[in-house]
Fold this protein.
Amino acid sequence: LNGRILAQTAAVLQMATITEPPPPTIPIDIDLPATNTNTLFHGICAGGSSSLSATSSHSSLTYKAMDQFIDTTKAWGDLDYTIYGIENTPCAGGILLQPSLAEDVQVGTSITITADENSSVCVFIEGDPARAGGWGASLQDEGFTVLFKDFGWVAKVAQGGTGKSRTFHLILLCKNV
């Protein structure tokens, strides 16, 4: 009888798997440098983060979180341009914060990103300094590293009704938080 009770107890213990909840994620705020141009072609993305958000001092600049960031994801809320080359970046399959504005961002705009600790946060900007908010150098001063990948955006251009596409390169700057 004792043997049978021990066997039943062992079977119950095998079935009762105690799983500990995952450790809580710790949100980290990243204050980006204020922009110093009137045009900011940018986006924000993260890999390894279960949540990502951003706030802006510009009343019309907001961000929409888009899960499963892949090629062909719409880059900006106000333009029908898509991203290419994301599969080779830390953001592949992660979260994109789609800016509501592609360009019209005023000088002095400040942006704060909130991401999970132990994630890779990236900012992409235009290669043209006049359209990059001054972030090419200032983000590197904040610990972001430039990743040169085949990465950019595609614009569908109506050229005499042909519907051809034109591609533009972006600079991807990333930081582990």
User: Anything to note?
Assistant: The longest helix spans residues 2-15. The mean pLDDT is 86.
